[in-house]
Amino acid sequence: MEKQVVDGLREVFQSGRSRPLQYRKQQLRALLRLITERHADIEQALKQDLNRSMHGTSLFELIGIENDIKVAEREMTEWAAPRPVKKNLNSALDDVYVKPEPLGVVLIIGTWNYPWAMIFQPLVGAIAAGNAAVVKPSELSEHSSRLMKELLPLYLDKEMYQVVTGGVPETQELLKQRFDHIFYTGSSTVGKLVMEAASRHLTPVTLELGGKSPCYIDKNCDIAVACRRITWGKFANCGQTCIAPDYILCEPSIQDRIVEEIQKTLLEFYQTDPKSSPDYCRIINTRHFDRVLALMNECTIALGGENDRSQCYIAPTVLKDVLPHFKIMQEEIFGPLLPIVTVNGLSEAINFINAREKPLALYVFSSDKTVIKRMLKETTSGGVTVNDVLMHYTVDTLPFGGVGNSGMGRYHGKHTFDQLSHHRACLIKSFAMESLNDARYPPLTTARLRKAKFFMGHRMCSCNGMCVWAVIATVLAIGLLVGLLVVLI
Amino acid sequence: MEGQKQVLERLRGAFRSGVTLPVHFRLTQLEAMMSLFEDNETQILEALHEDLAKPKFETVLSEIDIVVNDICYNISNLQTWMQPSYVGTNLATKLDDCFVRREPLGVVLIIGAWNYPIQLILSPLIGAIAAGNCAILKPSEISKATEKLLAELIPKYLSQECYAVVCGGAEETKTLLENRFDHIFYTGSQSVARCVLQAAAVHLTPVTLELGGKCPCLIYGRLDMKAAAKRLVWAKFFNSGQSCVAPDYVLCTDEVKDMLLPFMKEALESFYGSEPQESPDYGRIVTDRHWDRLIELMKRSEGKIVIGGESVKETRYIAPTVIVDVKGTDALMQEEIFGPILPILTIKSLDEGINFINEKEKALALYAFSDESQVVTTVLERTSSGGFCSNDGIVHMTLPGLPFGGVGASGMGNCHGRWGFETFSHKRGCMLRGWGLERVNVLRYPPYTESNLSWLRWATTAKKKGWGGCSLM
């Protein structure tokens, strides 16, 4: 079945239907209509999957997708146009440019925490770049998955874009097929399997994975504001966000203040009983519930800790004095537990971060520019937000992606278009100027070699380009001198 | 003798110390690479002559100058490339700084190939150094003299802390690939590429693969036959056909073929004389095994040899050879030729040629020869390939402004010029927010309300071109 789907899509792709920009824009507009006309159904599905509130869904998924569609539709012509590049003397009369082209059939594997955004945002880029696509939503967010399978063929060209649902066996079967690009969002463990499957067909991949995103709070900062922003980013979607601040690093002297500020903020956001707040989500299923709960075992609970397995509810929880060897510090939490690990200053925080895998996001809160500068310079991560959390994700002109264990490749806005395109180097020559070409033909003579080097080269003499100006300046100076002499004599 | 693991640990330690980060260090290393070429031109010429009987002319153009040009290009532009690039923001994020930092990846592995043993390993190294990485070079063991030369010269000119050469064959490469790198750059064959990609998957290491394929050359419509023949012949028989971007086979009509052949003979004679075997400007096949493979292909072909065909085993010589009346099922059409044998297949129409190309895997390069721009445009629009050049061969890869890389079976990723720097960098998206405007942030906090949502929507939608869209405050 999966093979038929892919073969069918490839045939339609090869017919050239998705080449004209008009077609791609039409499909994007249809996708926008899907969101705007069916948002109530989408909100309902997410409520059932994650107990996400209607506003939460708009805020965290739909507005982002809508924006991406509008930007892609508006800027597609520019993105898809040939991009001229620098020439050398030899190619001065030629057309030299990079031409973005579709890859073919791309596979987009989504995940359950933001089931619509994690599929539709890459899909927007896939459509804009002129590809066909197979979309595989996560079976864990089953209501969203079912709804997506029903809605997509109603709005998009179902011969060019198809939804395949199912669990692990269906995904494995899909991964045996040959795609021209695989875009996977999920865990590092499965990411390795996706890359390994892709290797058999030499298929390039984009992997949006995760990791433990550290959050350093410097003692020189507005701790109250910092904690509000962190609380928002950590407990949205019940902590199930790949770029949620995973753990806090701070000096012992401010740990209690941080707990206090988070407590105040939680009251403001979710009132006294987060379980009855419409804005507080649930863990996706009991397996993850058990996993997250077990992470609390060795820890000292500073706030929260309440839970209810029947509802997959875990209260917003803060854990203090967490030690590096605790289980909670060995894996990505992906839940509403916020451990605080104390360190003695910035250098120790930097070393702590660098001793671990490169994270998808890194956060630093400080009013001191030197602290920020050091943190940026001495660490690496997929992306960074300073003095806030999550926000770098929201600016579509910034490339979003991981590095090392947190992934490879990047997307959002034009970056998705570029990621799912082939950048074809083009040199358009005519038959003219054949005498210039003579320089490169055998038999070798010194004169020919000198001529070939000259026309191929980029430097006039030495490499910093200063020489060119030195020559021009010398010529001018000599000219002036001669002129002066003529005048005087 | 240092083992592979120790080399890797040493380089990792050097990278962690931050020594490669300052622009001054990177420029010094690039300048040292330049000196390596300036001081050792004779040795390079000799090594390449020993490995491939590579003529001086070819070595200078395709192994020395092309790399030196890229070094210069990098030196001139590195400071600019290293600057953070600021991106457009929208109303909601106008007071924030949003920029992209280019950061080194760490320790990278560059695996070279034997056909351009200097260029294919040092050209990626330029990008790796410019981007601030440490690197392990694994030259091809098939081009032995060059391997030995690189092992001697690299530690002499470049920082031994940060760059190392590891020599060996298939076994050593396999062991090397079990280690964890931050990027692997491989040039070579598809079958080995699969193994490289599989080994990389274990550690989630990103890869660049520069592979090959059968680069088609479609010749159609009105043409300057003489110039076309010269350029085609030059591109095909350079390095005795052992170039990943050599035109592998020609597609043209019978009429074009009949007109082209005499010009091709003329071009060959002007290049290599009446006896290419005696020309100092014509190369040889790299090993006996590769020579045997090519002779076997010629034997099994059902086409007719109209130019060349002569060969001498002792010197691994194969004459520049053109074979006509070749069909799609011929032995010569089943694998990348990688030698001085040029099959010509006849087509009746442009469509037939394009369909033939599209039924095969995407190649590293595709060539269209025609004086009619409509023909060139049609071929360009209806096919795909790593790179494309009209009315010439190979030269598109000499422009550092153009990315050099494949697509589909011919590879992934690219290098040359700034593209190399970008390949070996991580583009880190950064946002610096201020402490003010917390009252505005309130719009995004729970308890969520309808009115907050609509304000947010208004403030964050991308309204103007060039302004970044922002999905929430």
Automatic annotation (TrEMBL), chain A:
An annotated GO BP: glucose homeostasis
State the superkingdom. Eukaryota
Q: Which GO terms describe its molecular function?
A: oxidoreductase activity, acting on the aldehyde or oxo group of donors, NAD or NADP as acceptor
Q: Which PANTHER family match?
A: ALDEHYDE DEHYDROGENASE (PTHR43570:SF22)
Quote the protein name from its UniProt record.
Aldehyde dehydrogenase family 3 member A2
Q: Which organism is it from?
A: Danio rerio (Zebrafish)
Q: From which lineage does this chain's organism come?
A: Eukaryota, Metazoa, Chordata, Craniata, Vertebrata
From TrEMBL, chain B:
Q: Which Gene3D superfamilies does its entry note?
A: Aldehyde Dehydrogenase, Chain A, domain 1, Aldehyde Dehydrogenase, Chain A, domain 2
**Keyword NAD: yes or no?**
yes
Q: Which PROSITE patterns match?
A: ALDEHYDE_DEHYDR_CYS
Active-site residues, record numbering mapped to chain: E210, C244
At the top level, the lineage of the source is Eukaryota
Keywords for the protein's UniProt record, in alphabetical order: NAD, Oxidoreductase
Listed under GO cellular component are:
cytoplasm
- Pfam family of the protein (one): Aldedh
Enumerate the spans annotated as Aldehyde dehydrogenase domain.
13-426
> Which GO BP annotation is one of this protein's?
aldehyde metabolic process
Q: Does the keyword Transmembrane apply?
A: no
Give GO terms: molecular function aspect only: 3-chloroallyl aldehyde dehydrogenase activity; aldehyde dehydrogenase (NAD+) activity
Q: What's this protein's family per the entry?
A: Belongs to the aldehyde dehydrogenase family.
Q: What is this protein called?
A: Aldehyde dehydrogenase
What species is this protein from?
Answer: Danio rerio (Zebrafish)
